[in-house]
Amino acid sequence: MKVVVTGAAGFIGSHLVERILSDGHEVVGIDGFTDYYARAAKERNVGQARTHSRFRFESLDLSQDDLSSALDGAEAVYHLAGRPGVRAAPMQFDHY
Questions:
Q1: What is the pTM of this model?
Q2: How many domains does the chain have?
Q3: How large is the average pLDDT for residues 80-88?
């Protein structure tokens, strides 16, 4: 089964990716690497999965990029992506 995980480089997303891979499924991980967290930390989170043959990573902005190829053939989507620091939400509503 092909599964898509948004927020794949985050703490929860990266652990979910590892679990789905260990269950024998194909995973497409999506993350936008926003500047709220250091990119190096998020790269570490997804580092192990990147070595797996059933894992494909796509750096995409969910609010702007075309997700068609990432979603093509997916049987499940776990949407874990989100913008941290919700205090700015009223001023940047379209980013959330």
A1: 0.86
A2: 1
A3: 76
